[in-house]
């Protein structure tokens, strides 16, 4: 089941990306020679109009083959009538049309992410500030666990001073580390008001605070049915932006690690790592899979727009050259640079995959 979900997620991600290129090329009047689902070898193909639609053996993503995208201007499909191809090569299209085609794939991935997150919030509820500090997790062997604080408890006050924000809660527990404090707790389940004494740790384990709790002042709330689609879309957009910022930050540290240190960061995952994560996510149900799809879609959009040969961002560099110098880069040079870029990308993928394998062996 994990393999099926893994293949489905990757297929949706890449297929949606290529669908963007396909639709934009059609709208721009560029001749689309083939639109394929999956990767070759070809299993089945049917020509509808001027485009060959194919289903291929490897069910991972898809591809779009544009007439003249390598700058040669030569037909790659003998069945296509030459009369329909005149002046419709990608390489000969105006710059703004080529820009539209290149950005369409990234745009579709961003839209997929927004839709995925929007559906997630529509179904589960809209994050809403409550004004309450709720305990959502308690670490083992922590001061909070030893004091029998439970998930769902609400922190009302620390040493008699009311707490209204997470920032205040974190500040107070850090400042009073090593000293005994009294937490006023409300336990909604039993309708109990409790006073709990405990000592915040001065040097807590990594990832844990002085008390060993995770807190939240947000709950998932359902609004009237007619408001939910709009509110879900707003939250979906915010979530996409948040993941975009996080991925950019991670990407920066990854590049520094690769270029400066010559190391693959421990947290970066290749196909094997993503497959593992898919298995864990699948156990959590459909909404978790939907969130994972959204995260990967934002990730794919950002990676694709990087100014690296063989990616959409690499092609944008050549368009930038054309805009600045008012002439096209030699087609052979562009093809060669993209081939080198693809080789480097494949080498990086192999390196990351080897890293994944070693991580599995260690475990």
Structure, described:
With 363 residues, the protein is of the alpha+beta class. It has a domain of 96 residues: Roll (Pdz3 Domain), CATH 2.30.42. Helices cover 52% and strands 21% of the residues. It contains 10 helices and 8 strands. The strands form 2 sheets. Strands 3, 4, 5, 6, 7 and 8 form a 6-stranded antiparallel β-sheet that branches. A two-stranded antiparallel sheet has the order 1-2. Helix 1 packs across helix 7, helix 3 runs antiparallel to helix 8 and helix 6 packs across helix 8. The protein is elongated. About 3% of the residues have low confidence.
CATH class of the domain at 126-221, named: Mainly Beta
C-alpha Rg (nearest Å): 26 Å
Record field, number of beta strands: 8
CATH topology heading of the domain at 126-221: Pdz3 Domain
Order of helices and strands: HEEHHEHEEHEEEHHHHH
In CATH, what is the homologous superfamily of the domain at 126-221? PDZ domain
Beta-strand content bin: 15-25%
Low-confidence stretches: 73-83
Distance between the termini: 23 Å
């Amino acid at each position: 089941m994990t393999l099926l979900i893994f293949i489905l997620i990757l297929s949706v991600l890449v297929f949606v990306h290529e669908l963007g290129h396909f639709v934009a090329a059609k709208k721009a009047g560029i001749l689309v020679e083939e639109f394929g689902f999956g990767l070759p070898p070809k299993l089945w193909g049917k020509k509808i109009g001027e485009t060959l639609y194919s289903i291929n053996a490897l069910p991972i993503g898809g591809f779009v083959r544009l007439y003249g995208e390598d700058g040669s201007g030569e037909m790659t499909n003998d069945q296509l009538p030459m009369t329909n191809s005149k002046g419709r090569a990608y390489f000969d299209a105006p710059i703004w049309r080529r820009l539209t085609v290149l950005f369409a794939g990234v745009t579709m991935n961003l839209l997929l992410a927004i839709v995925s997150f929007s559906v997630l919030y529509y179904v589960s509820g809209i994050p809403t500030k409550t004004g309450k500090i709720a305990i959502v997790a308690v670490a083992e062997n922590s001061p909070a666990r030893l004091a029998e604080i439970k998930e769902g408890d609400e922190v009302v006050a620390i040493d008699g001073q009311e707490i209204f924000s997470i920032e205040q809660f974190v500040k107070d527990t850090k400042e009073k580390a090593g000293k005994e404090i009294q937490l006023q707790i409300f336990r909604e389940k039993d309708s109990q008001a409790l006073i709990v004494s405990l000592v915040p740790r001065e040097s807590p384990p990594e990832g844990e605070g002085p008390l060993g709790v995770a807190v939240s002042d947000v709950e998932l709330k359902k609004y009237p049915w007619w408001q939910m689609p709009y509110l879900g879309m707003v939250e979906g957009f915010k979530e996409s932006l948040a993941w975009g910022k996080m991925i950019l930050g991670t990407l920066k540290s990854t590049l520094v690690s690769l270029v400066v240190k010559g190391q693959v960061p421990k947290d970066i995952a290749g196909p094997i790592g993503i497959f593992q994560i898919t298995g864990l996510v699948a156990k959590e149900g459909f909404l978790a899979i939907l969130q994972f799809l959204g995260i990967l879609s934002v990730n794919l959009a950002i990676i694709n727009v990087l100014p690296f040969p063989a990616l959409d961002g690499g092609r944008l560099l050549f368009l930038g050259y054309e805009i600045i110098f008012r002439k096209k880069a030699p087609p052979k040079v562009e093809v060669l640079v993209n081939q080198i870029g693809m080789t480097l990308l494949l080498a990086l993928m192999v390196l990351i995959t080897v890293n994944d394998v070693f991580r599995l062996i260690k475990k």
